[in-house]
Amino acid sequence: MLLGAIADDFTGATDLCSMLVRGGMRTVQVIGVPSADQAPPDADAVVVALKSRTAPVRQAVDESLAALKWLQAAGAQRYFFKYCSTFDSTEQGNIGPVADALVAALGCGFALACPAFPTNARTVYQGHLFVGSVLLNESGMEHHPLTPMTDANLVRVLSRQTDGAVGLVAFATVDQGAAAIRDAMTRLKEQGRRYAIVDAITDAHLMAIGQAAASHALITGGSGVAMGLPDNFRRAGLLSAETNPAALPPLEGACAVVAGSCSRATLAQLGYARNHLPVFDLDALATPDAAALSDAALRWAADKISDKPVVIAASAPPDRVTLLQSRLGREQAGTLIEDAVARIAAGLVERGVRRMVVAGGETSGAVVGRLGVRSLRIGGEIDPGVPWTYASGSGPDLLLALKSGNFGATDFFLKAFRVLEG
Ligand SMILES: Nc1ncnc2c1ncn2[C@@H]1O[C@H](COP(=O)(O)OP(=O)(O)O)[C@@H](O)[C@H]1O
Ligand SMILES: O=C(O)[C@@H](O)C(=O)COP(=O)(O)O
Q1: Domain tally, the chain
Q2: What's the pLDDT tens digit per position in 373-415?
Q3: 315 Cβ closer than 6 Å to some ligand 1 atom
Q4: Ligand 2, from 6, 80, 406, 412: best to mutate by most atoms within 8 Å of Cβ?
Q5: Helix axes 203-212, 178-190, angle to 10 degrees
Q6: What are φ and ψ of residue 34, in 5° steps?
Q7: Do residues 208 and 100 both lie within one domain?
Q8: Contact, 112 vs 208, CB < 8 A?
Q9: Nearest CA to ligand 2 atom 6
Q10: What are the tens digits of pLDDT across the range 324-381?
């Protein structure tokens, strides 16, 4: 195993896998920390998917360290901590505390931090994260149900989550290429900085950052900064020149979309889908009960399940999210809906659904957990950062697309199934 990665949510993990597969690495995503006696898959990269983004800090740290230990035992040569391209976290963490624990466990003293993903319009300039042309805190992410992002200055955000010093490798240096970035990171480490936020606006920057960090034990960031890593291994003669991601085995069965993401992109995708597909909206304000919500949705779906996808969504605009949270509490509202969507996904599979899109990272964690999925084989991308995957575990095999809330074109819920038809 060349690269061992720990992802703080499941959509983030498939996003990273997809990037590595595109770079020619045979990559497997495993769900949760494998048991000590579980043999590592035969792959160049293994991504351990955790649901640790919004877990209590101690739990997130412990699970991440357990994942690291398993990856170390499996012989990984380099490590990657994958978090969101919009740096989703709270004042307490979990990016800072998990990164602190990994830096300490690896004894590396320093790690770069770069969430940039220009293909999906996330860029970092002077340490500030932009989504498209606006700062992170004006992008809609300020309304995220669980991790509202109200500050775009990543040096400041990360500093609040760690007792380590945070520096910056700014655009002017990054634009000079790998050697300049490497020197800047070495200087920051010598000055006692534990982290460097690294600016990146283009894929060329990401490739240069990857090259500059070839000797780093740990890299932290979004999937974008992993773009340069396959070439590092290739230059070192550890990865063969050409490999193509295997096509996934075909899988017949009915189609469905379940959505628990309230991100702008998902809301727009649902808006589009309403004109083309049957859509059922969960009303958690009227029925704050996961079993009852699930029963209602499955009753609605009963005579519609077929190879034309049904769509079941909890997603709501910020005012409705705030209303539910004010009644139930932020975490309880999230958990209620995740539970409802997970029950619905399981009910749909019982009724013959085998190809399913799940919208939302936390939502995907809940669904995949409920379905008993243990590993995902990565297939071709539907849109940047969202591949189809072949899911195996305790239930029937499935084709799953775990869609990050803010990823995908407006017609994503139709396109995903069109892509399967070739
Ligand atoms: N109508 C709603 N009111 C309150 N919370 C909601 C609602 N719909 C979904 N949620 C919660 O919002 C969170 C969305 O997070 P997530 O699934 O990670 O989406 P994203 O990928 O967009 O970040 C989940 O915990 C989900 O249960
Ligand atoms: O980096 C990203 O944006 C994604 O890979 C990711 O982490 C998605 O998280 P959600 O938006 O919670 O789905």
Answers
A1: 2
A2: 999 989 989 999 999 999 999 999 999 999 999 999 999 999 9
A3: yes
A4: 406
A5: 50
A6: -65, 155
A7: yes
A8: no
A9: 12
A10: 999 999 999 999 999 999 999 999 999 999 999 999 999 999 999 999 999 998 998 9
Query: In terms of pTM, does the model score above 0.80?
Result: yes
212 and 98: one domain? Answer: yes
Task: Flag whether 400 is in a domain.
Answer: yes
Same domain for 134 and 279, yes or no, is: no
Closest ligand to C-alpha of residue 85 is 2
Structure tokens, 120: 């999906």
Strand 128-131 relative to strand 386-393: parallel, antiparallel, unpaired?
unpaired
Q: Are residues 259 and 122 in the same domain?
A: no
> Which ipTM was obtained for this model?
0.98
Residues 6+ away with beta carbon under 8 Å from 337: 260, 282, 284, 290, 314, 363
Domain holding 204, by residue range, is: 3-235
Q: Is the CB of 324 under 6 A from ligand 1?
A: yes
Q: Is 24 helix (H, G, I), strand (E, B) or coil?
A: coil
Q: State the residue for tokens 């690896």.
A: 106
Q: Do 374 and 394 contact (CB within 8 A), yes or no? A: yes
Place of tokens 């890593």: 229
> Which ligand lies nearest to the CA atom of residue 404 in the structure?
2
Determine the residue of 262, 322, 386 to mutate for testing ligand 1's pocket, defined as the one with the most ligand atoms within 8 A of the Cβ atom: 262
End-to-end CA distance of the chain: 32
Residues 293 and 374 in one domain: yes
Q: Looking at the CA of residue 316, tell me the nearest atom of ligand 1.
A: 1
Say how far apart CA 321 and CA 330 lie, in whole Å.
9
Question: Do both 89 and 230 map to the same domain?
Answer: yes
Strand extents, DSSP E, 152-278: 165-169, 193-198, 218-221, 254-259
**Intervals of the chain under pLDDT 70:** 241-246
Residue 10: phi and psi, rounded to 5, are: -80, -35
The CATH code of the domain that includes 12 is 3.40.50.10840
pLDDT at position 91 = 86
Q: What's the pLDDT at 329?
A: 95
